[in-house]
Design a protein that fits this description.
With about 140 residues, this protein is of the alpha+beta class. It contains 4 helices and 9 strands. The strands form 2 sheets. Strands 2-1-5-6-9 form a 5-stranded antiparallel beta sheet, covered by helices on one side. Helix 3 packs across helix 4.
């Protein structure tokens, strides 16, 4: 079977799929956290609140992983291991784009408005060698 690429699972990446970010604690153990993300075609973007411990982890150790998956057929998924780039900026529009993916336009805008006083940072993960899978070919009919 040929190796799959991100373009082979574009509809998964475009959907509000579950995602999990793993960062590394000071003691070396993993912290596994559900997150919302956006795929830009070049990088995965995650907005993290500035008071979240994940930002402390990434400042100390930028290596992390992002796992995106389907909980229904055909059970596709992507694992990205990367060095995170954390940017302190006005994340309002990034937060809006991500929130709208998961909640829809109206609820996404309300979510952003409700969190206007909660600053965050933009975390970007550029995939180098993503692991991509699609179980469609091996599932029974």
């Amino acid at each position: 079977m040929a190796k799959l690429s991100l373009s082979d699972v574009q509809s998964l990446l475009d959907a509000p799929s579950p995602a999990v970010l793993t960062t590394i604690r000071r003691d070396g153990s993993p912290l596994v956290s559900p997150v919302w993300y956006r795929w830009t075609g070049e990088a995965f973007e995650v907005v993290i609140a500035r008071d979240d411990v994940k930002l402390q982890h990434l400042a100390r150790e930028p290596r992390c992983s992002l796992l995106i998956f389907e909980a229904v057929r055909p059970f596709r998924g992507v694992e990205v291991r990367a060095e995170a780039t954390v940017t302190r900026c006005d994340i309002t529009e990034h937060r809006r784009a991500v929130a709208r993916r998961y909640l829809g336009a109206e609820a996404g805008d309300r979510f952003v408005a409700d969190r206007a006083d909660k600053p965050g940072d933009l975390v970007q993960l550029v995939p180098v060698e993503p692991r991509v899978w699609d179980l469609k070919a091996i599932l029974p009919a």
